[in-house]
Structures are given as structure tokens and as C-alpha cells.
Design a protein that fits this description.
The complex is a heterodimer of chains A (298) and B (724). Chain A has helices at 40-47, 69-72, 90-98, 106-112, 129-142, 159-176, 187-193, 211-217, 256-264, 278-287; strands spanning 2-11, 14-24, 29-33, 55-60, 63-64, 75-78, 147-151, 179-183, 196-201, 204-210, 219-224, 238-244, 247-252, 270-274. Helix content of chain A is 31%, strand content 29%. In chain A, a hairpin with a 2-residue loop joins strand 9 and strand 10. Chain A folds into two domains: 2-209, 3-Layer(aba) Sandwich (Rossmann fold); 219-275. By secondary structure, chain A is an alpha/beta fold. Chain B has helices at 10-19, 21-44, 52-82, 89-97, 102-134, 140-165, 173-196, 216-223, 258-280, 295-319, 331-354, 364-382, 418-433, 435-441, 494-497, 503-511, 514-520, 546-562, 611-619, 631-634, 643-654, 658-665, 698-710; strands spanning 225-236, 243-255, 398-405, 408-412, 452-455, 466-478, 483-492, 529-537, 540-543, 579-589, 599-607. In chain B, strand 8 (529-537) and strand 9 (540-543) form a beta hairpin. The longest helix of chain B has 33 residues, at 102-134. The radius of gyration of chain B is 32 Å and the shape is globular. The chains are: A alpha/beta (298), B alpha+beta (724). The interface between A and B is medium-sized, with 28 and 28 residues. Chain A: This is ABC transporter ATP-binding protein.
């Protein structure tokens, strides 16, 4: 289990994390989403022991991460800007990681060679961005981690390799109970793999729920009101409304059944509840936090 | 399962060494060139047996002068290599994600750095030992001391570099801070003196060396040296079996070698401090100029202070110095110049810290403090608020007094030289009391050289009077380890020198007293150990054995006692007409190395009338009567009016300089330089061809005779008649 509680982190007076709290159950795949500068990478750097929080706690499996070498041996992290030694090839980096991670599996490394068809002797710096990401996954998965902390992990990978990588990670989750925390802007992809989601903004976690709970908490409805009723009734708790012809599209923060029941009071000609995508949830949740697509005319 | 969470990680250690092999490989290659060069030289010059002591002397010389300079550069390169990960967000992220505690990273990287430092020294050392063994000069004690010394200095410099590495957050700042810390004491000393001497009467040294120990490389090179003792011995030639007298190296020790141990301990302490900084270091400081919060104001105001002093002085020299009246700074212009310089330093530092040039609105209060500080500092010095100008240490606070006057150094010790020290203090107080007079008469722009003798305007009352300007420096070494050093340019006149109570009189009485004359040559002065002595004549010279040196020193002391040597004439300081081209030099080891030097050399110019010294030199068969030619006799054109014109005429006529002629014939041609005009040179086979058109004529002879009458003058002719 990953637990971040009331963490505050400031950089020269700027609060990058402001009372941030997340909780990731063991064996879960947790998607951490949020706008640029929300504090996702900062929280990840706390989870991997790079940053030390000003206050609050950062724990994995009930242990503090900071300066906990035994715990860090169970964590593999792939940052957005993965570092490798300048002249090192994958083989060099493998030997380096093997010297640090006691669970590093050479056997698995050998097996993964078939998946990641990369030249091990070629300097990593000469690889493309996607190939460097593959190399990072190859080494991270070979370390046999209990916790996988990923920041924009599949950015740069081609679709086939993305699927391949997710497949490998899901396999680890299923077989070894690996806990995965992934930060990404690719919400469609997260929707396919995550079972828990946390949304961050301004250094604070706005909400975190299981994906099912999240989708149950907000609903999109297409409504056609009877003749003579042009506008959406003001008393309805609508987060967002749009209209195309006579069809109103409403986003409401409640489950589909409750929303339908409330709309039925206006005798609509049509009511249809549609589940929201993660992207829509993200947009409308953050719309309430003054972050929405602005209609700017240039 | 093997533990991978200890304080040392072999993988990282190996990675460091393999990653940075070009650094230590190149250094090893460079180091290996020295023994190779030595080997080739020995082979080229023929097989020669080295004595083990010579080998030790060579080791200690390298340890004293080479190792500190090499280590200071190489240590920062090694530190930059192993700590480079701290300065990049990506690399610091990766290293701090690894399952190893910071002490593990620290210890492993320190050991990697020290190993990288040790490898080239080890390669060079092993090869050197092999070469010396090959030539029979293996000396285990020298090797051991050298190895320990190299390790100690490496530890210190690497420790200092590591300490700097944890203060900065930017790889370019690391060598900058390291260089600054290595020389900051010298730089600060220099700058404080630079400013103070423009305000305070008597403060005129550009460098005091008080805190030189804080500039390690300077201090190490200055203080540590091989101390070699030679003795005159009869030795037998290995090949020919002949016996001859020679100076033989009898012992070599490392002077102040303990300092290396002290610096090594300081290096270990700096590593400890670095570790404490690492524990608290924020990874996010990668890329910052200064990574430690409390160092930021130090950096900001430190830059301001240094820029204020250095930049202020520079601006003052450019903009105001030509308008300055006298030797000392004008207060207001200097304050303005310092504020301008300080502003540059302050805002530059602020911009570096903030990583933006937009700092003016947020930092104006600090700038105001800098401006007030500049004004306060200048005001305090100008009006001597701290009593620096008036300070004369109490006798019981002094452990050694050094007086430099009349071109010689005198060392006075409380308890033994109390009367002389009190005379020095009285002289010092009188000089301070006469401050206004001195500043008026000897404003001092460096225009007058030391001992410059100038004629003053003659008047009825003061006919033929002279004056001179001399430099006197008084240094008090205090029991606290600090020192008070003052230097004065003093205007001297014979009138004042004859008048009791003036500083002129006191100075003359002090320096020309019999006690001070003996002090001048360290005769029977306890604590001064004569380390070497040698003599030089116009035809050569040589090193003196300890017996010869002792006899000669006694002879000079007798001449001093008899008044035949050592009475300094302030107004004819440059008159060396009566000197022979014959010098004896005694090198002493100072009793306490408190004056930034260990050795002191006394030079005795032997002159006409030093009967005891001349007798001793003859008895020792070091000279013959042929050496007893005064400068006036040997270089007459230098002491005669129009002498240089004669010199040129001589050259034209004889196609050689008078020196060459004299060297060849031991006399000058008749009619030249005061010789009798009827003793015309006789042509011999060896004599140079004489150009008839330029042969000495009667008129030339008359001129020479005339010169002969005047001959003996030294310098400006107006002084001639006044010479006693």
C-alpha cells in the first residue's frame, strides 16, 4: 500500500504540494492525473525518495521511504526523463542496477530481451526516445519490484509497444501483486488500465476514487425538454450544459439513476444517461476548480 | 541474500573508476613521464650512484613544492567527477532513487575520489622507487614520509573540494568556490591591506600573511621544505681514488612536515562537514548557484564586500586618483566608488541566486545595507576609530620584534633584548607623533626609492645640507599569534639627526648602536642556526664549510666592534666605492617561522678597512691580494664626473669595455680613469690593437687626471664635499 498523507513541499516559498493525500491499495493500478504543474511529478519524487517532504508522511507498505534503502530496493521508478550514464549501453546499466537491487532477475532480463529487441551494447544516448523508454522498462521490470512508480511511462512508445508494456505490467500486477502508480496525461489509456484514479490540482489531491466510483459519481445526460421549455431549469445542479438543436447535454454530479429521476419531474421527451470517459470526468472536475477549456477567440 | 544496503557499494565504486578512467589514466600517464625522464637523464649522463639521502632530498622537494600544486588541481577534477551527479536533476534523481542510503553514496564516492587521486601518485611513486633502486638510491624512510605526505595532502584537498561540492548546486560553481576558498585568505588579506593603506598612516604592506594558513596551498608551499644539512668532508673519488674536500649531504628532514598531518586532519573534518551537508541537502537544489540556504546571504554579501573593495579601488584609481592630494584616499570619492563596486557585486550575486536579472525591486534593502557598510568602513578607517594608526603593542604582549631599516632585518626577543625593544617602541611612538610632518615631507607616491638622497635647497643657514628618505618597517609578533606590522617612509635630515628626541636621531642611534650591528649579522644570537654560507669574488666564489663560516663571522663581528664595518651612513647609502668586489653571505634558519619565511640571508660587502675580515679570508686562502681591488679602482668611471663618457670613448678606442680590459690586464691603460698619463700602454702580442686616432692624448690624460682629483664621489656631485 502506498500512503501519502498531508504532504507539504515548498520550493522557495512556492507550495508544489499543499496537503496532498493519496492512498493506493496493494496490487492496485493507480492513475495520477492533473494539469501541468499540479504536483504529480513532485509527489512521485517523494515516493521514490528523491525529495523529502516539509511535513506529512510518505509511506510504502507502512514504512517511510526517506533514506530507507531496504524499501527502495522494492521500488522501481521510471521518470519522464530517465537518466543513464553517458556512454553506457543497456548491458552496462543492467550490471549497474544488478549491483543495487537484490531482487534483480537476470533470468527475467534474458527473457525480456525477446520483447525489447534493442542492441545492448549500443550507447543508450544513441537510442530514440521510444527506445530509451523501452530500455527503462526492460531494466525496471527486471528489478522485480513490488512497487512500480511511473511518470509518463509510455510517452514516445509506438502503439504496439505500449500495449506490450502494459501487458507486461498487468501481468506483474496479476501474478506478483505489484502496486503500480502511474502519472499520465493520456487519460484514455489510463482508463483502460487503472482501477483507481486521483486527480491533482495546485499541489492538492482533489479527489481519489476507484474508477467505478468516479464514473458513478458523475453522469452525462442527453435531454429533450417538452415544447415551450427552451432552457435548462435553474434549480438543477448542472456542472456543464450545452445544446445542439433541441437536445441538451448536461453533466451532473450524481449517479445516473438520481439524475434521471430529477429530470423526469420536467416530463422530458427524452432522457438518456451516458457514462463519462475519464477525460470528461477530469475536465469537468477541474472545471469546478477553475480549470476548464476557455473559449478564447484569437 | 547478500546485503546491498551497506555504507559501501562496490558496483558504484567500480562504475566511478571505469567511468572516469580517462581522468586518472591521463594523470597516471603524465605522472609516469617524470620517472621516465629521470631514467633517461641518468642513462644519458652516465651511470651515477645516488646516495639515499639525495633520493630523500628529491622526494621531499617534490613533496614540498610539487605535490601541493598538483593536488590542488587534481583534487577538484576528481571531486567534480564523483559529485557531478548532484548538479543535474536527472542524475541526482536516479542516484537518490537507488536503494542505498546517502551515507553509502557518500562513502563510496569519497573512496572512489580518493582512489582516483591515489592511482596516479601510486604509479608515479612506484616507478620512481624502481628508478632510484636501479641507481642504488632506495631510501625507505623517504618513501614512507613521502607516501604519507601525498596521502595527507590528497585527503585535505579532496576533503576541501568535497566540502565545496556540497555547498554549491552548479558544477561550474564548484571549481570557482574551491579556488576562492583556497586563496580567500590571501585575497582578503591583500584587499584589506589595499584599502587600509590608503587610509591609515603606517599601514603600507600589501600583504600581511596573518591568516595565510587559511590558504592551504600557499601556506604548504611556503612552510614545508626539505631541510638539508651539508658538512665539509674529505671524500675519496670512487674511480680515481683521489681524496678531495667537498660538501657532503649529511641529513635531510622535512621541515614542518607535521603541517601535512594537520591539514589531513582538517581534510577529514571537512569530509565530516560535507557529510552533514549531504544529509540535509535537497535534491531539488541541483542547478542552483548555492545549494545551502544559510550560505546564500554569505555569498550575496561576500560578493558585495569583495567587489566594493576591489572594484571601488579600481574605480578610484580610474576616476579620482589623479585628483588626490597626498598619499591617502579622499573620503567621499572613495565611498562613492566603493558603493558602485559593491552594487555590481551585490546585484550580480543576487541575479545568480535568483536565476533572473529582475532582482532590483526585491533586494534594494540589502543594497542600502551595502552602501551604509561602505560608508561606515571608509569613515572608520579615515578617522582611525579602531586606533590602528596609533597602536604600539605593550612589551608584555610581544614575543618577537622585527625591525627592517637601512636594508637589514633585526630580530629582537623580549627578555634578551628588552632595552632595544623599548628603543624601538620609543622610535615608533615618535614617528606616530610626527605623522603630519612625515606626511608633508615624504608624501610617498613610490617616487622616491629607498635610500634616495636628495639635496635640498641651500640657504645661508643650511648650506650644503642634505636629506634622504628611508623606509622603516616594524613588526611586532604578539603572544596571541597575531602581528602588528607598520611601515613608514621617513624623511631624514642631518640637522634633525643631530637633535635629540627626533625620530631621525632615535633611528640613527638605534641602528648604528653596537648591539644592533651585532644583531645585523646574528653574531652569537641564540636561536639563529646558520644553514649555509658562501663567498663571491669578481673571479668566482664557493660554499663555505661551517668552520670557515664561523671564523669569518667572528672576523666580521670584530670589524663591527672596531667600527670598521656596519656604521650606516643614511646620506651616502649607495656609496660602494670603497667596497671590494667581494661578498660573504650567511644563510640562517630563523628561530620561529613567524614572518612568512624560514630562512634569512645576510650579505656582507667586504670593503677597504675591514682588516679582521680580510685577514681571515686570506688565512683561509679564499682570496689573494689580487682580489682586494675596490670598486673605485675597478670601475672608476662609475665614481667620476663624466666617467661614462670616458667609458664610451674607451670602448671606441680599444674595442672592448674597460671591464674586459681590466680583466685581461689587471690595470687600465695609462692616462685613463685616473692613471698617470705618461704611462702609455705598451703594445704586446696580447694587447689589443690600438687605434691611433683614439689613443690617449694629453688632453684626455688631463681630463682623466682631473677626474682623478674628483674621483671618489658617489652619485650626485654635490654630496662629495660633505662625506665624512
Amino acid at each position: 500500500m502506498i500512503e501519502v498523507k498531508n504532504v507539504v513541499k515548498t520550493f522557495d516559498g512556492f507550495a508544489a504540494l499543499n496537503d496532498a493525500t493519496i492512498s493506493v491499495p496493494t496490487g492496485a493500478v493507480y492513475g495520477l492525473v492533473g494539469p501541468n504543474g499540479a504536483g504529480k511529478s513532485t509527489i512521485i519524487r517523494h515516493l521514490t525518495g528523491i525529495f523529502r517532504q516539509d511535513s506529512g508522511t510518505v509511506r510504502l507498505g507502512g514504512e517511510d521511504v526517506w533514506e530507507n534503502a531496504a524499501l527502495k530496493a522494492k521500488i522501481a521508478a521510471i521518470p519522464d526523463d530517465w537518466y543513464y550514464f553517458n556512454s553506457a549501453g543497456i548491458g552496462d546499466m543492467m550490471r549497474f542496477y544488478k549491483g543495487f537491487y537484490p531482487n534483480f532477475s537476470t533470468e527475467r532480463y534474458e527473457k525480456l530481451r525477446e520483447v525489447f529487441e534493442l542492441d545492448e551494447k549500443r550507447p543508450i544516448r544513441r537510442f530514440s526516445k521510444g527506445m530509451q523508454k523501452q530500455a527503462a522498462f526492460w531494466l525496471a521490470l527486471s528489478a522485480m519490484p513490488d512497487y512500480l512508480i511511473l511518470d509518463e511511462p509510455v510517452d514516445g512508445l509506438d502503439p504496439v509497444m505500449r500495449r506490450q508494456v502494459w501487458s507486461l505490467m498487468m501481468g506483474d500486477v496479476a501474478e506478483r501483486g505489484t502496486t503500480v502508480l502511474v502519472s499520465s496525461h493520456n487519460l484514455r489509456e489510463l482508463e483502460d488500465v487503472c482501477d483507481h484514479v486521483g486527480i491533482m490540482d495546485h499541489g492538492h489531491v482533489l479527489l481519489e476514487r476507484s474508477l467505478a466510483q468516479l464514473q458513478d459519481n458523475m453522469v452525462k445526460l442527453q435531454v429533450v425538454f417538452p415544447d415551450g421549455m427552451e432552457d435548462v431549469p435553474a434549480e438543477l445542479p448542472v456542472l456543464h450544459a450545452s445544446k445542439l438543436g433541441r437536445v441538451h447535454t448536461l453533466i451532473m454530479r450524481m449517479n445516473a439513476q438520481e439524475a434521471t429521476e430529477r429530470l423526469m419531474a420536467y416530463s422530458p421527451l427524452l432522457v438518456d444517461a451516458i457514462p463519462l470517459t475519464l477525460e470528461e470526468i477530469f475536465i469537468y472536475e477541474l472545471g469546478g476548480a477553475d480549470y476548464a477549456v476557455k473559449d478564447i477567440v484569437l | 541474500m547478500r546485503s546491498k544496503t551497506s555504507c559501501f557499494n562496490g558496483t558504484l565504486f567500480r562504475k566511478n573508476l571505469s567511468r572516469y578512467w580517462p581522468l586518472w589514466g591521463l594523470a597516471s600517464f603524465g605522472g609516469a613521464m617524470f620517472p621516465l625522464a629521470m631514467l633517461l637523464e641518468l642513462l644519458h649522463n652516465g651511470f651515477r650512484f645516488w646516495s639515499p639521502l639525495e633520493t630523500r632530498q628529491a622526494y621531499y622537494t617534490v613533496l614540498s613544492y610539487g605535490v601541493p600544486v598538483i593536488s590542488i588541481v587534481y583534487a577538484i577534477l576528481c571531486a567534480m567527477a564523483v559529485w557531478s551527479y548532484l548538479y543535474n536533476a536527472r542524475s541526482v534523481g536516479m542516484m537518490h532513487t537507488l536503494p542505498i542510503r546517502r551515507e553509502g553514496l557518500f562513502v563510496t564516492n569519497v573512496l572512489s575520489g580518493l582512489t582516483m587521486m591515489a592511482i596516479p601518485y601510486a604509479v608515479t611513486g612506484v616507478l620512481l622507487v624502481l628508478v632510484t633502486m636501479l641507481f642504488g638510491g632506495f631510501e625507505p624512510m623517504g618513501v614512507l614520509v613521502t607516501v604519507l605526505g601525498v596521502m595527507g595532502e590528497s585527503l585535505f584537498f579532496f576533503g576541501l573540494a568535497t566540502f565545496c561540492a556540497f555547498i554549491v548546486g552548479n558544477v561550474f560553481m564548484l571549481p570557482a568556490l574551491y579556488g576562492l576558498l583556497n586563496f580567500i585568505a590571501v585575497l582578503t588579506d591583500f584587499m584589506v591591506n589595499l584599502l587600509a593603506q590608503g587610509f591609515c598612516f603606517g599601514l603600507n604592506s600589501s600583504y600581511s600573511g596573518t591568516v595565510e594558513w587559511l590558504s592551504p596551498v600557499v601556506y604548504l608551499v611556503q612552510k614545508i621544505s626539505p631541510n638539508s644539512t651539508y658538512e665539509t668532508q674529505w671524500v675519496t673519488d670512487r674511480l680515481g681514488g683521489q681524496r678531495y674536500e667537498t660538501s657532503v649531504l649529511t641529513s635531510v628532514t622535512l621541515e614542518n612536515g607535521w603541517l601535512i598531518a594537520a591539514y589531513a586532519a582538517a581534510g577529514a573534518a571537512l569530509l565530516g562537514l560535507a557529510w552533514l551537508l549531504y544529509r540535509r541537502r535537497r535534491s531539488e537544489s541541483a542547478g542552483d548557484v548555492v545549494a545551502v540556504g544559510w550560505m546564500k546571504p554569505v555569498f550575496r554579501y561576500g560578493c558585495a564586500v569583495y567587489a566594493a573593495i576591489l572594484g571601488g579601488r579600481l574605480l578610484y584609481a580610474l576616476l579620482w586618483e589623479s585628483f588626490q592630494n597626498g598619499q591617502y584616499f579622499a573620503l567621499l570619492p572613495m565611498i562613492l566608488c566603493m558603493i558602485a563596486g559593491g552594487a555590481v557585486g551585490y546585484y550580480a550575486a543576487s541575479m545568480l541566486l535568483a536565476k533572473t536579472p529582475r532582482v532590483f525591486k526585491t533586494t534594494w534593502k540589502g543594497m542600502l545595507a551595502v552602501a551604509l557598510g561602505c560608508a561606515a568602513l571608509c569613515g572608520a578607517m579615515k578617522y582611525d576609530l579602531f586606533g590602528v594608526t596609533r597602536r604600539i603593542p605593550a612589551p608584555d604582549s610581544v614575543k618577537l620584534v622585527n625591525v627592517y631599516a637601512a636594508g637589514s632585518n633585526y630580530y629582537l626577543t623580549p627578555g634578551k633584548d628588552d632595552v632595544l625593544i623599548e628603543k624601538v617602541r620609543t622610535l615608533h611612538q615618535t614617528i606616530i607623533d610626527d605623522k603630519d610632518y612625515i606626511q608633508k615631507e615624504a608624501p610617498g607616491y613610490g617616487y622616491y626609492s629607498d635610500g634616495y638622497t636628495a639635496s635640498v635647497e641651500e640657504s645661508a643657514e643650511d648650506s650644503g645640507a642634505q636629506s634622504t628618505i628611508t623606509h622603516v618597517r616594524i613588526t611586532y609578533m604578539l603572544n596571541s599569534g597575531l602581528k602588528v606590522e607598520r611601515g613608514y617612509r621617513l624623511y631624514l635630515t642631518p640637522d634633525r639627526m643631530a637633535r635629540e628626541g627626533t625620530y631621525d636621531y632615535l633611528l640613527d642611534q638605534l641602528i648604528n648602536s653596537p648591539e644592533m650591528r651585532q644583531k645585523r649579522i646574528r653574531w652569537r644570537d641564540e636561536g639563529f642556526q646558520m644553514t649555509e654560507a658562501w663567498f663571491e669574488t669578481w673571479s668566482g666564489g664557493g660554499t663555505l664549510g661551517s668552520r670557515e663560516a664561523g671564523l669569518l663571522l667572528d672576523a666580521v663581528a670584530k670589524d663591527a666592534e672596531n667600527g670598521d664595518w656596519g656604521v650606516y651612513n643614511w646620506f651616502l647609502a649607495d656609496n660602494d666605492a670603497d667596497n671590494y668586489d667581494l661578498r660573504i653571505q650567511f644563510e640562517y634558519k630563523l628561530p620561529e617561522s613567524q614572518f612568512n619565511r624560514i630562512h634569512d640571508t645576510i650579505r656582507i660587502n667586504v670593503k677597504e678597512g675591514m682588516t679582521e675580515t680580510i685577514r681571515a679570508l686570506k688565512d683561509l686562502k679564499l682570496i689573494t691580494d689580487a682580489d682586494l681591488v675596490t670598486n673605485r679602482e675597478r670601475y672608476p668611471w662609475q665614481y667620476a664626473q663624466g666617467g661614462w663618457d670616458q667609458y664610451d670613448q674607451f670602448y671606441k678606442q680599444f674595442h672592448m669595455s674597460p671591464e674586459e680590459y681590466y680583466e685581461r690586464y689587471s690595470e687600465y691603460p695609462a692616462g685613463w680613469f685616473g692613471t698617470e698619463s705618461d704611462e702609455l700602454p705598451t703594445e704586446t702580442e696580447n694587447a689589443p690593437a690600438v687605434d691611433d686616432s683614439h689613443s690617449p692624448s694629453m688632453s684626455a690624460g688631463a681630463e682623466a687626471a682631473g677626474l682623478g682629483i674628483i674621483g671618489g664621489a658617489d652619485g650626485p656631485t654635490v654630496m662629495v664635499t660633505t662625506v665624512a
